[in-house]
Amino acid sequence: MEVKYKKEFYILKQKEKKVDSEAPAIRVEMIDGQTKVIGMMAPKIQVMLTSPNIKDYNNGLHDILKKFQSKILVYIITSSPISEIKKVTTMFELDESTVSNDFNKFSLKFGVNLSENLIAKSAFIIDKEGLIKYKEIPSNAEHKLDLDEFEVALEEVINFKVKGHTHENWMGV
Q: Helices 59-67 and 147-159 meet at what angle, rounded to 10?
């Protein structure tokens, strides 16, 4: 896939991650110094947001994430410098243990690497089983994410109920 950013075109490196495929597990250092393994099975739904510019994080996106905060884990991965990240984390009162600019390995594993210095803009929703349920990568990294589509997809993943045979149903518990 080709992505435009600041009048340049980039070909995404590594193979594309598809919806309903297993999300890769990746070790990432957060800006508070913690190292976390993200992207695999988790107790909550994971939302992975990436951007070459942390300033793309906006009120619309923030409001959606706040609405579902008790049911999701949000990770923001950017290629922005720490000084820019700190401004945005302060402005939106973001937890620094969920924001990182340690983007290179993440961007290669998730198929959103533009270059050694840049990550593409993207949104991934990963269910509790570690499967990618939603993915958006705008072809122009300066364009906004489709927040309406993102919110609908997030709500669907949150409200998904497993149907069919379960041990408890079979046993009449």
A: 10
State how far the Cα of 121 lies from the Cα of 79, in Å rounded to an integer. Answer: 10
Enter the pTM of the model: 0.89
DSSP character at residue 25:
P
Place of tokens 């509790």: 128
| pLDDT, tens only, 22-67 | 999 999 999 999 999 999 889 999 999 999 999 999 999 999 999 9
Determine the pLDDT at residue 165. 57
Residue pair 132/46 in contact by the 8 Å Cβ criterion: no
Phi then psi dihedrals of residue 2, to 5 deg: -100, 135
CB burial of residue 173 (10 Å; 0-12, 13-18, 19+): exposed
Beta-carbon contacts of 45 under 8 Å, excluding residues fewer than 6 positions away, are 71, 72, 73, 125, 126, 127, 128, 154, 157, 158
CA neighbor of 70 nearest in space, from 98, 104, 44: 44
